[in-house]
Amino acid sequence: VQPVKSGYALAPQGPFELPSAGIDGLVLTMEPGARLSGVVLSGTGAPIEGVRVLPSPGPGQCSGISTEPSDAEGRFTVYGLFAAEYRISVSLPGDTVYRRLDEYAPIEISAGEHVEGIEFVCDFSSPGDFAIAGHVVDTAGESIRGVYVIAERPTWHETQTGGDGQFHIEGLRDADFEMYVWHKQYAPQRLYDIPAGRDGMRIVLEARGGIEGYVVDAATGSPVTDFEILERTRRNHFNGQADYLRVSDENGRFSLAGVEPGERTVLVRANGYAPETSDPVLVHPGQTVPELIVRLSAGRIVEGIVYDPDGQPAQEARIFLDEQPTVGFVIQDYALAVTGADGRFTLESVPAGATQVVAWHPRHAAAHAPIPGGSGKAEVELQLRPGATLEGTVRAEGEPIPNLNVTIGDFSPSVHESQTDEAGKYTLIGLSAGTVEVVSNPTFGEAESWYGRKHIRTVEVREGDITTLDLDFDVWPTEVAGRITVDGQPPADTLY
After folding, report:
1. d(CA 178, CA 201)
2. Segments making up each domain of the chain, as ranges
3. I need a surface site. Which of 87, 241, 309, 406 has the fewest CB within 10 A?
4. Could you tell me which residues are beta bridge partners of residue 426?
5. Which fold has domain 8-122?
6. Which tens digit of pLDDT belongs to each residue from 219-247?
7. Cα–Cα distance between 83 and 34 in angstroms, integer?
8. Which whole-number Å values give the CA distances from 324 to 99, 320, 365, 380, 488, in the listed order?
9. Is 425 exposed, middle or buried (0-12, 13-18, 19+ CB in 10 A)?
10. What span, in angstroms and rounded, lies between the C-alpha atoms of 312 and 319?
């Protein structure tokens, strides 16, 4: 059990033996939250903007409820830390992968303490005799200054382009690299299988675009003057909060900048209206989509109660309409309501086309209930199922793999996700009965030679039962070879 509140902190408490009647009278005493601040530097000593710093008190744990990316001077602050010894991981600009800084000793932080003046150098490189070099341009062929060019794997190296758009990454060993190219004004790119020694690369970045338009009442056509809007691809991946923009405009007008090119939609929510997703629009590089109209309809009120498998009110059940989400951040960011201690919830803006209510809980299988017909207030009851448990051990060539994500479904963060302990063991709970797809994928710094070799298995799980599934990574003597052509000819040496 771990409470979270701005300005305070407390380490996870327990574990507790939970009887069917539950636990009452539990007292959790929070401490003043500690802070960690400092600066993030590149291997050359230059400050890096846009880095997120993640303090971890133990395998699979994190702390800190408020953090912003490092500023232009490389400065950062992490708030809400409880007293513990922390190891540090970082995520570079625009990326969601965290790299642990194993060369730094753990940092001991006391309750309410402000540890400041810390310097972290983000340089994962190992010396080598090879380099990767090239030129980063926009779609008009103009050089782009200040682009982060990162050779991520199998070892970490990074640089920035100068005014001529050129980059040169040195000290690489003889290997194929995965690269990440990022600039805040352009759509990022991820490049694969780039051999060390590659010279003359030409990387073309597409400028981000924008979306402008109006939000109106579907019945009257009058503007909705106060609302929140979210472009569905935009999300703060670190702290799990959806990046909604609050708009107050007498004409109902909105303007979204920094939208990645491609087919995009926006989600709008406002008091008294059902949430609405716009029609898809095509955002072209460097251009703004004008006059997108989003029409909001008045919503129906649906009230209800959620029970646990023992028939007791279920607290902290998250409520959705029509379908249970499969992606972890959707559960956290987009729940329409969360039940209290009495298990009750109220949905005030249910669209007319919604057919059922879904209740999700981390320890039980989800429950579904149809929404009664009619236009007035509706009442529903849902009872969560006991759910199935899946557990096992993950090994590579006979040795356990710690700190490895095991998910249900080939994506992460998944609604059902576990991290292996030092013995390689994982446990997934609250699964719905039936056939599930189990995926494990070694991460950076763990079983390096197996990075990217996903292990995918299917298994049948039964409600209330524990199923064991061990996963073993063995040598795979296979290869895939082919040829890429454009109109029958080898493509030019340009990567898109």
Report:
1. 14
2. 8-122, 130-205, 209-296, 300-383, 388-473
3. 241
4. 392
5. Immunoglobulin-like (2.60.40)
6. 899 999 999 998 876 543 333 345 678 99
7. 7
8. 31, 7, 11, 17, 45
9. middle
10. 17
Structure tokens given for 316: 């902290």
Question: Pseudo-torsion of CA 155, 207, 491, 495, nearest 10°?
Answer: 0
Low pLDDT (below 70) residues in the chain = 58-67, 94-98, 123-128, 153-155, 233-243, 327-330, 411-413, 442-453, 474-478, 493-496
- Contacts of residue 234, Cβ cutoff 8 Å, sequence gap at least 6: 243, 258, 259
Token couple for 163:
């005014």
Residue 136 exposure: Cα atoms within 13 Å on the Cβ side: 29
- CA angle, 313 as apex, 307 and 318 as ends, to 5°? 70
User: 119 and 88 in contact (C-beta within 8 Å)?
Assistant: no
> Buried (b) or exposed (e) across 291-314, using 16+ Cβ within 10 A?
ebebbbeebbebebbbbbbeeebb
What is the CATH code for 300-383? Answer: 2.60.40.2070
Amino acid sitting at position 252? G
Residue pair 300/352 in contact (Cβ under 8 Å)? The answer is yes
Predicted confidence at residue 411, as pLDDT, reads: 66
In sequence order, the 6+-apart residues with CB closer than 8 A to the CB of 185 are 207, 208, 258
Q: Name the residue with tokens 């763990």.
A: 446
Helix (H) or strand (E) holding 329: helix 328-333
Domain 388-473: CATH superfamily is Carboxypeptidase-like, regulatory domain (2.60.40.1120)
Helix, strand, or coil here: 40?
strand
CATH architecture of 130-205: Sandwich (2.60)
Which CATH architecture is the domain 209-296 placed in? Sandwich (2.60)
Tokens of 442: 């070694």
DSSP lists the bridge partners of residue 319 as: 337, 359
